[in-house]
Amino acid sequence: MRVLVVTAVDAERDAIVRGASATVPAGTGDPAGPVEFAVPGFVLRRPAPAPEPLVIDALAAGVGPAAAAAGAATALTAAALSGSPYGLVVSAGIGGGFTTPGRSAAVGSVVVSDAIVAADLGAETSAGFVPVTDLGFGTVEHRPPAALVRAVAEAAGAQRGDVLTVSTVTGTAERAAALVAARPSALAEAMEGFGVAEAAAAHGVPALEIRAVSNPVGPRDRAAWRIGDALEALSGASAALREALRAAPPESWSASESWSTSET
């Protein structure tokens, strides 16, 4: 199985590679460590090879849903044309964590997506925000295979919830409250997941999103961000992803829980 992990920036990509490399038994990997190779316009990094039929490639595609979609689509197309397509695409990185009634995504914790949601794709009207689906076209949600979500969340010790994709990072308590009111299952916010999921859906490949929480969603306070802690948590989640895929390969994802999209 080949897995493509798409991040926004190099630091996230390298955290993914470190975590995946940590699961390679001593003495079985390439002593030179991770390898790099190119697809048009991008550089992929691959952890040291392991004695198993599982390959994980990590790509830093850029910030925001458009860059993420472009990078993911390029890598997916290149892999398909080479005759060795990807079987799973993962959007991964750090992000903001929501506090919702009864639960909270604390700084340093990990969230695995039950749904990958475009939170601001639509139109502003006199009655408020209208999602693009209510305008009669498009989609605002992709749902990963439920069995895979459960396996990765259990392996990572992570919470499950909706991960919202925004083009503008939330910076006020009022906006954070509005997002949670519109999507009560929201646990994390980032900027790339929906773009990655759109590219995956165009290729008929399932997608997943994993976010390590670096800061609370709400008033912008850079002093409260814990990026280093979040990157460490992301490395741990990468190791857990590899272990989960060993334990729950694609054939274990039942037909009733297969990759799906939703228009609501």
TrEMBL record:
Pathway: Quinol/quinone metabolism; menaquinone biosynthesis
Biological processes, Gene Ontology terms: L-methionine salvage from S-adenosylmethionine; menaquinone biosynthetic process; nucleoside metabolic process
UniProt xrefs under Gene3D superfamilies: Nucleoside phosphorylase domain
EC nos: 3.2.2.26
Nucleoside phosphorylase domain: residues covered: 61-244
Reactions performed catalytically: futalosine + H2O = dehypoxanthine futalosine + hypoxanthine
Alphabetized GO MF terms: adenosylhomocysteine nucleosidase activity; methylthioadenosine nucleosidase activity
Key words, A-Z: Glycosidase, Hydrolase, Menaquinone biosynthesis
Source superkingdom: Bacteria
EC supergroup of this enzyme: hydrolase
GO CC terms in record: cytosol
InterPro entries: FL_hydrolase_MqnB, Nucleoside_phosphorylase_d, Nucleoside_phosphorylase_sf
Free-text function comment from the UniProt entry: Catalyzes the hydrolysis of futalosine (FL) to dehypoxanthine futalosine (DHFL) and hypoxanthine, a step in the biosynthesis of menaquinone (MK, vitamin K2).
Family: Belongs to the PNP/UDP phosphorylase family. Futalosine hydrolase subfamily.
PANTHER family membership: 5'-METHYLTHIOADENOSINE/S-ADENOSYLHOMOCYSTEINE NUCLEOSIDASE, FUTALOSINE HYDROLASE
HAMAP family per UniProt: MqnB
Protein known as: Futalosine hydrolase
Protein source organism: Streptomyces telluris
Gene giving rise to this polypeptide: mqnB
